[in-house]
Fold:
Amino acid sequence: MPLETILTPFVLVVGYVAAVLIGISKTGTPGVGLFACLLMITAFRGHEMFASGATVPLLIIGDVAAVRFYWKDCNLALLKRLWPPVAVGLLLGAAALCLLVNSQFKLVVGILATSILVFEFVRQKMGWTQVSTSLPFRLGCGVLAGATTILGNAAGAVSAAYFSSQGLDKKRFMGTNAVFFFSVNVAKIPLMLAVTQIKHGMGFAADEANVMGQTTFLLTAIFAPGILLGGFIGRKIYRSIPEKIFVPFILTLNFITAVYILITACL
Structure:
């Protein structure tokens, strides 16, 4: 997809705003990351899957900053248990991406992200503490996280719900979240490149097949400064949020954005 055909003034403005929000989400408030991904989808209307792919390298830049600041607080034991089902979810999501068209894309993401957050709110309200330690819950969250992250970079909703259920405090949440998404987003690059080739081979039109390619990385170079600015702002926001409201605040932000994605997909 030629860069000159998609890089309009509107795309530039919205793309930079999204990049700043990605930086903020990675170093300060993970709840705004889903909204940033939604902005990218909005900017590239009619090319939603390409927008999702174009967001991934930007997310990785933000992940590098987040890992730099928070890796010492990562709960690595938790991630080791979560990574295997996430890998399964990535493969399932990649297979689904090979079949989806742009018009179906946001609806699928919205349903998946909203459902897991509703479940987490119900779990907390009902006091289902045993659910959070069960094998089916871990496997389900892992598979959903893998599938939603490759389908629309929407795994922030799933990871927020899962990390919340594990009782992580503010520091542990940020450290575990940083390492988790750096590893997952890097893994998505070869999968998305492969999906693009497979869809071309299946005869999809260019608008439906182009998930990731050379233009993706050109856009990364253009929007990268926004990530750095957002990362600086995010650190300041992180320090200002009280410990006791941090995780509920992240869950609420993710829920609002997931519902918004679902509503706009149905319009």
Notes: The chain is about 80% helix and 0% strand. The mean pLDDT is 85. The two ends are 27 Å apart (CA to CA). Residues 3-266 form one domain.
